[in-house]
Amino acid sequence: MKSQSMEEHRTSAPVDITCGVITLSDSKYREFQETGEIPESDISGRLLVDALSRDYTVSEYTVIPDDGKMLMSAIHEMIDEGVSVIFTTGGTGIGSRDITVETLREIFEKELDGFGEIFRYLSFKELGAGAILSRATAGVYRGTLIFALPGSPNAVKLGIEIVASEIGHLVKHLRE
């Protein structure tokens, strides 16, 4: 059941939203370094760009290794360029090189707990107990929304499905 005030917020939400995409992957970064081009193998990053481009402007898209300093550098560059929403894909697992969640939680001024909770709930409905491996998260840093998604294409599709209709509403609140 949707509330009237939520619908009013959605209808008054901004449409001039600029997004950025960061893929974290050591192997895809090596390809990027060798060719200077976003790798064809970056299916999840390309899915994000394609999905976001339907309703918003995607002004930044980069591939970096699983490195916290490089992640922070990419985030600061995008924020300085005026990006309102950043999506990361990759680096959210439990391996020793998976640093996305730890890096972001150190900087989040506010965390959107509901995003991760809904993501895991819907993942559980589809995958079962394997959903416990998901550490998808979201939060706010310097007035910018940041969503951290796992690297699998299906996880990216699910993440976009969850937030696509709410991006404008969220940005509206950040701009108030």
From TrEMBL:
GO terms for cellular component: cytosol. Gene3D superfamilies: MoaB/Mog-like domain (3.40.980.10). SMART domains: MoCF_biosynth. CDD domains: MogA_MoaB. Residues 20-170 form the MoaB/Mog domain. GO terms for biological process: Mo-molybdopterin cofactor biosynthetic process. PANTHER family: MOLYBDENUM COFACTOR BIOSYNTHESIS PROTEIN B. This is Molybdenum cofactor biosynthesis protein. It comes from Methanothermobacter thermautotrophicus (Methanobacterium thermoformicicum).
